[in-house]
Write a structure and sequence with these properties.
globular, 13 strands, alpha/beta, 5-stranded parallel beta sheet, 4-stranded parallel beta sheet
Length: 432
């Protein structure tokens, strides 16, 4: 072998060694990412009038937003940042939901306040939603709408929705109640850059890709993690700013409920300052759901049964370090497994704290708001309903959402994946 060939061979081998070392470093980093324990870092003191704000502000460490578990209390406090309103983009104002404070003014650090209201999209290509039936329950419907909006943005095409489509009623029952239909349609089109289709003639000249509800649910975004988070959170904040307050009608001309009904019924005049946690129990024991749970937890290193069973020791391991075993625990459920509520009621510490939504105030929108605006939320990673609540909490600057739980080698309950993991398609797949 000549000198030239030897040098070429050495360069090739050097590149192989470099790529192998890079791959090894990446794998080690991923293992550290998935196996670190999130350590609670903010005890909630009811005697301190700033407790709610402190809890919300201190979730803004970069690790939480990227879905990376926090390494230590010291590090989480170091990364926590509080931004004053004059540092935020012009005309941006934080808002309250059911008189409870959100923390959206802290989001500016992550560039997640991008403006997606620019509707200059292709006037030739269209994703058309025209399916006559839904796919799954409310959580799935919300996922499908958000995904349709996201796909239209990343593909730079127009999103068309047939007038009278079921998604309009799902949304108008909870958000953007209708006062005047024409004005409502104009507002909806502007907020989400969609085109509402009233006739077949409106579709002439378009290259159309039709997507039904099932296809939307099982499609994932090709955007980067940061871009996907930014886009989805923009849509969620647009919905939340128009949450229904009991005025107006839905698309079927029925009077809308108040999204604050559950919070009002349980906490009344104390709703703005009360500290409370929410446990969402969802019975997901079908073969497809069990398979999805195993797949998610293989990636997130969680126990697929942990937040299905919601055992008292799991719940207490979350609430005790936060000082939340002194405050109400609201239980919301699909009602299909009464044993979970009974088990919590029988626990000597949790039982006295449990609160249930009265029958007259119980409905899907009220339960969603209870979950979004709680100081702590404990849900199921396989539930699109829990997923929407967690995404909404992050969109409003609220942390302390616990979906990914497991017992470590020491026999201790830990959170195996951070709040932001709910947006990561590499972990939760279609639930993102």
């Amino acid at each position: 072998m000549g000198l030239h060939e030897k040098l070429k061979s050495l360069r090739t081998e050097s590149r192989r060694i470099f790529l192998f070392m890079l791959l090894a470093i990446t794998c080690i980093s991923m293992l550290r990412f998935y196996h670190q324990q999130i350590i609670p870092y903010q005890s909630i003191d009811p005697s301190n009038s700033l407790s709610i704000q402190q809890l919300q502000f201190n979730i803004l460490g970069d690790e939480v937003w990227k879905g990376t578990p926090l390494e230590s209390e010291e590090r989480s406090r170091k990364n926590a940042q509080v931004y004053s309103i004059d540092e935020m983009p012009p005309n941006f104002k934080p808002f309250k939901v059911c008189s409870r404070t959100t923390n959206t003014k802290g989001l500016g650090k992550y560039g997640l306040l991008r403006d997606y209201s620019n509707c200059h999209r292709s006037e030739r290509e269209m994703i058309l939603l025209n399916s006559p039936s839904r796919y799954g329950r409310t959580g799935n419907s919300l996922v499908e709408f958000l995904r349709a909006v996201q796909l239209s943005r990343e593909r730079n095409v127009t999103l068309g929705i047939i007038s009278g489509h079921w998604i309009f009623n799902v949304l108008s029952e909870m958000f953007l109640a209708i006062q005047d239909l024409k004005e409502w349609e104009q507002t909806f089109e502007r907020l989400f850059c969609v085109k509402i289709i009233h006739s077949e003639q409106s579709l002439e000249g378009w290259n159309i890709t039709s997507m039904d509800a099932g296809a939307l649910f099982w499609t994932t975004s090709n955007s980067t993690y940061d871009e996907y988070v930014a886009s989805t959170q923009y849509s969620i904040r647009a919905l939340m700013q128009g949450y229904n307050r009991g005025n107006g009608t839905d698309m079927h001309h029925k009077p809308v409920n108040d999204m604050c009904s559950g919070i009002n019924a349980i906490f009344g005049n104390n709703k703005s300052q009360v500290l409370y946690s929410v446990v969402h129990s969802r019975n997901l024991m079908g073969a497809e759901q069990r398979s999805m749970g195993r797949d998610i937890c293989n990636k997130a290193h969680c126990d697929p049964l942990a937040n299905q069973e919601m055992k008292p020791d799991n719940i207490k391991s979350i609430l005790a370090p936060l000082g939340m075993l002194k405050h109400p625990v609201v239980f919301i459920t699909d009602g299909e497994d009464a044993s979970i509520a009974q088990r919590l009621m029988n626990d000597t510490e949790i039982g006295p704290l449990l609160r249930f939504v009265p029958d007259e105030a119980r409905w899907v929108g009220g339960d969603i708001t209870l979950g979004i605006m709680g100081n702590v939320f404990i849900g199921n990673p396989v539930s699109s309903y829990s997923g929407f609540i967690t995404k909404s909490r992050l969109s409003l600057g609220l942390g302390h959402s616990y979906l990914f739980r497991a017992i470590n080698e020491k026999g201790e309950w830990i959170t195996s994946c951070g709040d932001g993991c709910i947006f990561d398609k590499n972990i939760v797949s279609v639930m993102s």
